[in-house]
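Objective 1b: paired records.
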Amino acid sequence: MPVLELTTLIPGRTPTQVLDFCLEGVNFPKIFPERIAPLGDIDLNDLRIEAGRQFRFRHWMFNLIPSDWTVAIREAGDSHFVDEMLKGPLRAFRHEHRVAPGEGGTLYTDRVTYSAIGGAFSERLLVNGYMRRIFEARHRNMLRLLG
């Protein structure tokens, strides 16, 4: 399975501040570079990410193609949390969010392990580049919002 890992230094913020920002559901659409919307009875203003929580959302890939996701929070700790796709457009998707002290701020890391429907061919053709673009944009958004 492909693995994408990106780390960004967020200056002037502690790991606790960065992780708390990520754990607040209201910030999810602010970080995500494409249109997303919660599904069901989820109120993003009242959503706090915690282990065992499941939620659904619609993501418009390329801001055009609707794709429904169901995710579960598998782990949540003092320096990380992990979400995993239960149902969605990929064969598998696991996303680790990690924070650590860095020089002058916090190192924020996204580590994504995924598998596309269609296997290695579709990953090389479309999915790998798409994932890199999405997560690079997420890191730019994190810097803009917290930096």
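Objective 1b, second protein:
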Amino acid sequence: MLFGQSVFQSVLDRLKAEDDETVEQDAPAAARVSGLNTGLAFDVMEGVSASSARPNQAYFETMEFAASETVAERSPEPLPPPEPEPEPVMPDHLERIAPEDIAAELDISARDTAQSLSEKRRAFAKQNHPDRVNQLFRENATKRMTIANLLIDQALRRLAR
């Protein structure tokens, strides 16, 4: 310990003092701000004022460069038009909207518990929910979900009795 400080702390103090001296020597007096150790934006331009640099000219210079290119250099062969998407095909299970068909798919029995019925509802919704199918088939999906929910709710009511 030197003068109440550790060796590490004395080295840090000396490095900080040297750094402060070099910052004060490097920065011109007009560009220095008290407590600010980095240079300001106008230091970067090395004495060139912003009005004489005319930054808006860069845009026009690039336009002149673009105008000097030939049309063949600028535009390669045009892309062919994209192929139209094929019409979506309705899945087979969405065509079955009769309550008997849906009841057969759900396979609700007297052995089902509330947990197994909710699992069946989730599994059915995963395949048939209207938000998960193409817009063209949403009407059938809505009907299937409505009937399935009705059948499962009836089974839950019977289970509760």
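Residues 138-160 form the longest helix (23 residues). Residues 1-32 form one domain.
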